[in-house]
Specification:
Radius of gyration of chain B: 22 Å
Number of helices of chain A: 4
Structural class of chain A: alpha+beta
Distance between the termini of chain A: 8 Å
Number of domains of chain B: 1
CATH class of chain A: Mainly Alpha
Number of domains of chain A: 1
Radius of gyration of chain A: 14 Å
Oligomer: heterodimer
Helix content of chain A: 40-55%
Strand content of chain B: under 5%
Number of strands of chain A: 3
Helix content of chain B: over 70%
CATH topology of chain A: Arc Repressor Mutant, subunit A
CATH superfamily of chain A: Winged helix-like DNA-binding domain superfamily/Winged helix DNA-binding domain
Strand content of chain A: 15-25%
Largest sheet of chain A: 3 strands, antiparallel
Shape of chain B: elongated
Shape of chain A: elongated
């Protein structure tokens, strides 16, 4: 099975779950880091690592507001990230149809 | 199996497992962000039936029509408040941690709805001032009017967001409002209450079916 046609940035369990979760929100909406972590079930450190990789590829954007204990980080899927997930889903479907 | 623990960089991540994980995650996320939920639709259906039913019990058999009792009106607003509180609670659950674009803020929906409601009460006052009968001013208009104008406002909002399910419900609400007016000043409360109950039950069933699809 040629899994190398799948976007390596998304074809990782944790990142696939992050992108799929954010894609369930309407375009332009953002999700707090806390709720995303609760929904995905990763440790904060792990989640940050995966978010950073996705952000470097411009698949999502993060925004931090406030300072100290009142600070809040939100994460939103970019248009590029949404398109990448659509391409990934199509590639996955083609791959599985060929089995 | 902890699917997030396998193939940390995707090397051993089986595409079949990926497809299942994608499907499960998308479905779970949609359910958690979903508003309104089937449960809320059921609560609203019960509240609407009780609210309109309370008024109908108060006015049935009146000849000439003299309008609902204050107790029945208080019951109506009580049940409307129950539905509103349930919707607020559900909305907070679904949108916890979600930041919306300014155009999608709650007030963008609340303003047309509030204006539509207010317009009905102003129209009631104007008709009363112009000498229209109690049957029109305190019967047909307050029962059917809010459904027509609020339904129309909801339909416009849903169409703008391309939310076809909400658009269908909103158009059905408008149809209930217009059609129930044929039942007369007493009957309109009963017909509108039962019809609206049926619409909301259908919405709950459709939502539950879509969840499973």
């Amino acid at each position: 099975m040629k899994a190398d046609v799948l976007d390596p940035l998304i074809h990782v369990p944790a990142r696939l779950r992050i992108v799929a979760t954010l894609a369930a929100l309407p375009d332009g909406d953002a999700l707090s880091f806390t709720r995303l972590q609760k929904m995905i079930g990763l440790t904060p450190g792990n989640l940050i690592t995966h978010l950073r990789k996705l952000e470097e590829a411009s698949y999502l954007s993060t925004e931090k507001t406030g300072n100290g204990v009142a600070s809040r980080t939100t994460v939103a899927l970019s248009n590029r990230g949404r398109a990448a997930l659509e391409s990934y889903t199509a590639a996955l479907r083609d791959l599985l149809a060929g089995l | 199996m902890d699917k997030t623990a396998t193939g940390s960089e995707g090397g051993e991540f089986d595409p079949r497992v990926a497809a299942m994980l994608l499907e499960e995650t998308s479905r779970s996320a949609r359910r958690q962000f979903e508003f309104p939920s089937p449960l809320l639709s059921l609560i609203q259906a019960g509240a609407v039936l009780a609210a309109y039913g309370a008024i109908w019990l108060s006015v049935r058999g009146q000849d000439p029509y003299s309008g609902p009792s204050l107790t029945a009106v208080a019951a109506l607003y009580g049940f409307v408040a129950v539905a509103a509180i349930a919707a607020t609670w559900e909305g907070r659950r679904a949108t916890a941690g979600v930041s919306r674009r300014p155009a999608r803020q709650q007030w963008s929906r609340a303003i047309p709805l509030a204006a539509a409601f207010l317009a009905v009460y102003v129209l009631m006052g104007a008709l009363r001032y112009d000498g229209f009968s109690t049957a029109i001013v305190y019967g047909i208009l307050p029962a059917a009017g809010p459904l027509i104008v609020v339904g129309a406002a909801m339909a416009g909002y849903a169409a703008a967001r391309e939310n076809w399910q909400d658009l269908g419900v909103a158009v059905a609400v408008v149809a209930v409002g217009a059609g129930s007016a044929f039942a007369g000043p007493s009957g309109v409360w009963g017909v509108a209450g039962v019809s609206l109950f049926a619409v909301l039950i259908c919405r709950a069933i459709a939502q539950a079916w879509l969840r499973r699809a």
